[in-house]
Write a structure and sequence with these properties.
mainly beta; 5-stranded antiparallel β-sheet; elongated
C-alpha cells in the first residue's frame, strides 16, 4: 500500500507529483472539493489512501470497512461500505456521501460549542410598552382615543344607505336624518263629511279616483243598520269638496264593496260586492256629481276576500279574485257592454282554504295580471301567481311563495317600471322579546310567468293591534310609493331602489280611534284621499285629503349619533362611525370650513343646522360630539 494521499493538495496526482493515469477528476472539480472542505473544516479526506488498482484496495480492505481509497488506474473513489463512486458522476452525490460519512463517524461534532440547555426558552406572556417604537403610521393610543375613532354596531329601524347621518332612538335602534315626506293633512280641508246620518256605522268602504279627472272620486260603502250598498261622488275644488247624493245600488245585505273606474270609458265605474254568498257586479255612470246604476249581475258563488281590478290595456275588461263557498281561490274575467256584464272565463287558482285574495292587472302588458293570496290551513303561507288571458282561456303560472303568517295584504304594479310589483302586508307571529305584529313591504320582479322577490322590508311593529294595509305607487313620481296602516292612521312614503325600500314616517292627524273600514287612494295629481269613520263623532263618514309634501325633520342635536358605514335593511346590525372622530368618505368639502347638518340630512356650511365639525380635507371632517 502506498503512502496516504491528500486530495486537498494534489488530488489527481501520485505521491511523487506525477500525473496519474486514468485520472477522473478535472481541475474545476478539484478546486471545488478544495474550497468545500477547507471552509467546512472537515479533514476526512486526509484519510484517503491511494492505490494503483482495485486489486490493491481489495487486498488492503477485503471486508469494505470504513475507509476511503483512490484508485489511480480508474480515477474513482472507494467509500466506506464498499461503494465505488465514479468521479464523473454528479458532484453533489459525492459531497453528500462524504458529509454523511463524516457525521456518522462523529455525530456529536455538529453540536460542538453550543451551551448546555441553550434551547430551553420560554416566551414571556407580555411585554412592556417601552419596547414599542412609534412610527408615522403606527401610534400607541389610549382607550379614550381608540373609542373616538372606532365604529359601533347598531340595529337599523329602517333601510338606510351608507354615508347617511343617523340618530339614536329610545329603543336603541337608529334611523337616518331626513325631512319627513308623508301624507300631511291640510287642516283647512279636514273632516269632509260624506255621510252624516248618525244611525249606523260606516263600514266596508272603498274609494277610487277618476283617471280622466283627478279632481273626481267615488266612494262605495254600507252601514250596519241595513248593509245596503251605497255610492257617492265627490269633486275637489281647491280646499273644498262637493258631494253628490248617496245612491243605493243594492237594496239588501251586502259586504266587501270594491270600486274601480274604467280608464278606457269616461265616467264609468265598476262596483263588485258579496251578497247572499254570491259575487255580484254592477256598472255605474257618473254625470257631474250624480251617479246612476244599471242592473246587477251574478258572477259566481263566493263569500269572502273579494278583490277587483280593471285591465287598462283591454277595453271593457275587468277581473275579480275571491274565495268561493268552499274557500277555494277563484278568478273571473268579465266583459262590459254598456251596463251589461258577461263572464268571459272563470278559473280556480288554489284549492286550499284561501284568504286575502288580491288581483291587479299589469299596466304595461295587456291581458296579464297577478294574484296574491294566503293559505289559511298552511300557517298563513302567502303566494303570488301570474295569469294571462287569451280569448276565453285563463292560463296560470306556478305559485311563488313570499312569506308566512300573513294576516292582511295589498298588491300594486309599478306603473313606471315594467314587470315590478309591490306587496304590503301585516304579519303576526309570537316571538319572545320582539314585536308580535309587524308590517312589511316586499318588491318582486316578474320574469314571464314567475316572480323573484327581494328581501322583505320591515316598516313598523307593535304588540297588540291588528289593522289593514294599503300600498300605492305615486302616478307622477317614479319609484315613490305610499303605504298606509289603518290603525293609528300611520302612513309612509317610500322610495324603491332595486328591491330595497327606504321609508319616511309620518302620522296623519286623523285621530287614534279610526275604524278599520278605511280606504285609501291617490289621484293623478298626487292628491291622497282617506276614508274613515270617526268613532268620536258617532261614526260619521269622513274624507281627508292630503299631498306628499315636506313636513318636518327628525334631526335633534341630543340624539345625533354619527354616520352609517355600511348600507343595511331594517333589523340588521351595521357599524356607525360616532361623532367625535374624523369622519371619512365624504366629498366636495372646503378645507377649514365649519359644516352643519341640515334638516334633510345633508351637510353644508349654512349655520342653520347642527354644527358637525371642521373639514380637514376635501373628504374628511373632524367632528364634535353633540350630546
Amino acid at each position: 500500500m502506498s503512502k496516504k494521499y491528500n486530495p486537498l493538495l494534489k488530488f489527481g496526482f501520485d505521491e511523487e507529483g506525477e500525473e496519474a493515469t486514468g485520472q477522473g477528476l478535472n481541475e474545476t472539480q478539484l478546486l471545488f472539493f478544495n474550497k468545500l472542505f477547507t471552509q467546512s473544516g472537515m479533514n476526512i479526506l486526509d484519510m484517503v489512501e491511494c492505490f494503483d488498482d482495485e486489486e490493491a484496495i481489495n487486498a488492503a480492505y477485503p471486508t469494505g470497512s470504513e475507509m476511503m481509497a483512490y484508485n489511480r488506474a480508474t480515477g474513482t473513489l472507494w467509500m466506506w461500505g464498499g461503494m465505488w463512486i465514479d468521479t464523473e458522476q454528479t458532484m453533489h452525490q459525492i459531497i453528500a456521501m462524504l458529509i454523511a460519512y463524516h457525521y456518522e463517524a462523529d455525530p456529536t461534532s455538529k453540536l460542538a460549542g453550543i451551551e448546555e440547555n441553550a434551547n430551553n426558552y420560554t416566551h414571556p406572556a407580555s411585554h412592556s410598552m417601552s419596547i414599542m417604537n412609534e412610527t408615522t403610521d403606527r401610534k400607541i393610543m389610549t382607550a379614550a382615543e381608540r373609542e373616538k375613532i372606532s365604529d359601533r354596531n347598531f340595529i337599523l329601524s329602517e333601510s338606510i344607505t351608507n354615508g347617511n347621518f343617523v340618530k339614536l332612538l329610545a329603543n336603541n335602534t337608529i334611523e337616518k336624518i331626513s325631512e319627513f315626506l308623508g301624507f300631511i293633512l291640510h287642516n283647512e280641508i279636514r273632516d269632509h263629511i260624506f255621510e252624516n246620518n248618525q244611525i249606523g256605522v260606516i263600514r266596508s268602504t272603498d274609494i277610487a279616483f277618476d283617471p280622466n279627472n283627478p279632481d273626481k272620486f267615488v266612494i262605495v260603502y254600507c252601514k250596519d243598520v241595513d248593509d245596503y250598498g251605497r255610492a257617492i261622488v265627490g269633486t275637489i275644488d281647491g280646499t273644498d269638496i262637493t258631494f253628490g247624493t248617496a245612491v243605493v245600488y243594492r237594496e239588501t245585505g251586502t259586504s266587501k264593496h270594491r270600486v274601480c273606474f274604467d280608464p278606457n270609458n269616461a265616467n264609468k265605474i265598476i262596483v263588485t260586492y258579496v251578497c247572499s254568498y254570491k259575487v255580484e257586479a254592477i256598472i255605474g255612470t257618473i254625470d257631474g256629481i250624480d251617479i246612476t246604476f244599471g242592473n246587477y249581475y251574478e258572477i259566481d258563488d263566493a263569500q269572502y276576500y273579494l278583490s277587483l281590478s280593471v285591465d287598462p290595456n283591454t277595453n271593457n275588461q275587468f277581473g275579480i279574485a275571491y274565495t268561493d263557498t268552499s274557500n277555494n281561490g277563484k278568478i273571473s274575467i268579465c266583459s262590459i257592454n254598456g251596463t251589461i256584464i258577461s263572464v268571459v272565463a272563470t278559473e280556480e287558482f288554489s284549492s286550499e282554504n284561501i284568504e286575502n285574495a288580491k288581483i291587479t292587472f299589469d299596466p304595461n302588458n295587456a291581458n296579464k295580471f297577478i294574484i296574491a293570496y294566503t293559505e289559511y290551513d298552511n300557517n298563513y303561507e302567502s303566494y303570488v301567481i301570474i295569469g294571462t288571458i287569451s280569448d276565453t282561456n285563463i292560463t296560470l303560472g306556478t305559485p311563488v311563495f313570499f312569506d308566512d303568517d300573513v294576516q292582511t295584504m295589498d298588491l300594486a304594479f309599478d306603473p313606471h317600471n315594467a314587470n315590478k310589483i309591490l306587496i304590503g302586508y301585516y304579519r303576526y307571529q309570537v316571538v319572545v322579546g320582539e314585536f308580535n305584529r309587524k308590517t312589511f313591504a316586499i318588491v318582486g320582479n316578474i320574469n314571464s310567468m314567475s316572480v323573484t322577490f327581494g328581501t322583505a322590508n320591515f316598516i313598523f311593529g307593535w304588540d297588540s293591534v291588528s289593522s289593514e294595509v294599503k300600498v300605492l305607487f305615486d302616478p307622477n313620481t317614479s319609484n315613490q310609493i305610499a303605504f298606509f296602516q289603518s290603525k293609528y292612521s300611520l302612513s309612509f312614503v317610500g322610495t324603491i331602489n332595486g328591491t330595497a325600500i327606504a321609508f319616511e314616517k309620518s302620522v296623519c292627524a286623523f285621530g287614534n280611534n279610526l275604524k278599520q273600514s278605511i280606504a285609501f287612494a291617490v289621484s293623478d295629481d298626487s292628491q291622497y284621499a282617506l276614508i274613515y269613520s270617526d268613532i268620536d263623532n258617532n261614526d260619521i263618514g269622513m274624507v281627508g285629503l292630503s299631498t306628499t309634501t315636506s313636513n318636518t325633520t327628525n334631526l335633534k342635536e341630543n340624539t345625533l349619533l354619527g354616520i352609517l358605514k355600511e348600507s343595511g335593511m331594517a333589523d340588521e346590525s351595521k357599524p356607525v362611525q360616532l361623532l367625535g372622530s374624523v369622519i371619512t368618505g365624504l366629498s366636495g368639502l372646503t378645507v377649514g370650513s365649519l359644516y352643519y347638518l341640515q334638516n334633510d340630512g345633508t351637510l353644508s356650511t349654512d349655520s342653520g343646522g347642527v354644527k358637525i365639525g371642521r373639514a380637514i380635507s376635501a373628504t374628511e371632517i373632524e367632528t364634535i360630539k353633540t350630546f
